[in-house]
Amino acid sequence: MNNGRAILKLSGKILSHGLGEGKVFIYHDTLEHFDQFYNIVDNFQIEDERNRLNQAIIKISGDLNILADRVETEIDSDFAGVFQSHVAIVQDTTLSDEIKKEIADELVSAGSAARTVLRRWEHRFSSMEDDTSRQKADDIRDLTRRLVSALAGIHAHVLNDFPSDGVLVARRLLPSDTIFLASRSASAVLLEEGGMGSHAALFAREIGLPCISGIKNLLSIVRPDNYAQVDAETGTIIINPDAKQQRRFLKKSRQQKLIRVKAQSRALKPVRTKDGTHITVFANVGCANDTMRAIENGADGIGLYRIEKAYMGFQEPPNTVKLLDVLNKTLGPARNLPVYVRLLDIGADKTLPFLELKKEPNPSLGLRGIRFLKEYPNLLQTQIDALLQLSIHFNLHILVPMVTLPGDILLVKKLLNDSAIRINVTRMPKLGAMIETPAAALAVSEIAKHVDFLSFGTNDLTQYTFAADRENGAVDLYFNDTHDAIFRLMSIVHEDVPESPLSICGELAGNSEYTSRVLNCGITSLSVAPLSIPTIKSAVRKTTL
Ligand code: PEP
Ligand code: MG
User: Fold this and answer.
1) What's the distance, CA 88 to chain centroid?
2) Given this model, what pLDDT does residue 281 score?
3) pLDDT of residue 361
4) Which of 301, 305, 363, 467 stands the most exposed, by the fewest C-beta atoms within 10 Å?
5) Are 212 and 232 in contact (CB under 8 A)?
6) Residues 49, 53, 56, 62: is their CA dihedral positive or negative?
7) Whole-angstrom distance, CA of residue 532 vs CA of residue 309
8) Which pLDDT does position 316 carry in this prediction?
């Protein structure tokens, strides 16, 4: 692999764990060296360029809709939602009006105008600190490339030529790029830019692809004929390794694989702590593929299905039948296992394609979760009816998001009982409250009286305990879900309501370094990403309570 070339050692930030190696494939974004831009001279040409723009928008909207459908069935409904949002952006008349104005004002081609306007839009988002705005900047850049390429008549994507088992080297990855990686089994990805919350990072973790980012000047250091060894356990990369480095890496890869295979086969069995307490390890899922992957990896059930994932696929509010259909398809493979579905958790950073949310000065502290549902009773009723019908065939548990006061849960309980009588359902689902605010944790007795179980949403519990926005990288230091404050809150809940079954479905559940500490707070159930189940089950086996 070395062939006498210089050995280089690089390092960066791990976005997704694992080991991978292969020949590098350097990906230069077409937008960076594109010269389909020309000036125009008269009003006829202005009209021509505007028509070309309209046609390009129609073309890429169609392409994006097809892509979204493909992603929905093959990968994940979250990613399908990304492309649906691209359709909404490109069809927004504010955007096309601004591009048309640019054509006329500057007398430039539609491609040139589109690039200028979209770069302005991108810049607005990329200068913000939080992950959501940065994701939005990636979305806009992705669309720029799509629109400018369509105007230039280019249809092939550079990654069409990406070889299987190659190591992708790029400045950053946009949502459309990730689709190519899914179908070509890349062995690792190296990036100059991209944070933990970027689309690329979420995607890489989702499919278990090793990924390291933040590698300075990567594109100018690495050459097309180089070979890369990527250790995304330590965050290090060796370019053109020598024979000794090769052997060492191979040994480590084999050991890792062995551990994984062993953990995977053991994960299919139920798990107990060293001193014999049975712990259930469930999966957080977003689509039917996840559910299948969860079961293959030994999930004891589905611990969190965020119902907003089902809603993301609709351009108008679904009725009970349509919603039930999505639930059946997504959760179908887990029909014989316990399944936990959470009611819509909309508000703050999460929205729906068909909803114009009321502007709030401080959305994270406003109408989200159950508070939002109280304002939209029809949306709540549809979910209750669909879930009651689902419970006829499933061992169903319903989770209520952002419960803070007992009234939040009493309202859902009454609605469930009344609706069950109305539609004649006798097999009632179990009801649980998400504990996501310090108030809910500290006064849990009044809430626990009315539910069958409690589940800690440690992502929000951390955000609200530390007053640190979970989407804002600038306060990362304060957003710490392994801080004593979080463990103390969970222990208080266990002491106050020792009879209530406790689970965690936030990210903390998947952090194997803390499994022992988490279980020693009285938690008996963990819900984690499908691929993390074997690791977490291994960590449970090593725990003494
Ligand atoms: C949480 O807050 O930990 C949680 C599981 O819910 P979400 O991440 O969807 O807000
Ligand atoms: Mg939450």
Assistant:
1) 20
2) 98
3) 85
4) 467
5) yes
6) negative
7) 21
8) 86
Query: Which of 160-169, 250-259, 270-279 is modeled with the greatest confidence?
Result: 270-279
Q: What is the mean pLDDT of residues 484-495?
A: 98
The residue to mutate among 306, 344, 437, having the most atoms of ligand 1 within 8 angstroms of its beta carbon, is: 306
| Residue pair 151/187 in contact by the 8 Å Cβ criterion | no
Contacts of 212 (CB under 8 A, 6+ apart): 11, 12, 13, 14, 15, 188, 189, 190, 191, 230, 232, 235, 237
Are 208 and 189 within 8 A, CB to CB? no
- Which of 342, 403, 454, 460 to probe ligand 1 with, by most ligand atoms within 8 A of CB? 460
Taking the CA of residue 507 as reference, the ligand 1 atom at the shortest distance is 3
Residue 142 half-sphere exposure toward CB, CA atoms < 13 A: 26
Looking at per-residue confidence, does 24 or 470 come out higher? 24
Model confidence band, residue 349 (pLDDT cutoffs 50, 70, 90):
low
Using CB atoms within 10 Å of the CB of residue 321, give its burial: 0 to 12 exposed, 13 to 18 middle, 19+ buried. Answer: exposed
Q: How far apart are the two ends of the chain, measured CA to CA in Å?
A: 49
- Residue 195 · residue 12 · CB < 8 Å: no
Evaluate: CB of 506 within 6 angstroms of ligand 1: yes
Cα separation, 152 vs 529, in Å, equals: 41
Fold of 267-541: TIM Barrel (3.20.20)
- Ligand 1 atom closest to the CA of 456, numbered from 1: 3
For the chain, domain boundaries: 31-152, 267-541
Q: What is the mean pLDDT of residues 133-159?
A: 85
Under CATH, what is the fold of the domain 31-152? Enzyme I; Chain A, domain 2 (1.10.274)
> In 3D, which of 431, 427, 437, 435 has the Cα closest to residue 453?
431
- Confidence label for 37 from pLDDT (cuts 50, 70 and 90): low
Q: Sign of the C-alpha dihedral, residues 193, 195, 199, 205?
A: positive
Report the pLDDT value the prediction gives residue 68, as an integer from 0 to 100: 85
Can you tell me the mean pLDDT for 137-153? Answer: 89
CB of 306 closer than 6 angstroms to any ligand 1 atom:
yes
Average pLDDT, rounded, for the chain? 90
* Ligand that comes closest to the CA of residue 459: 1
What's residue 261's pLDDT? 85
How would residue 376 be classed by pLDDT, with cut points 50, 70 and 90?
Answer: very high
**Quick one: which ligand is closest to 344's CA?**
1
Q: Are 438 and 461 in contact (CB under 8 A)?
A: yes
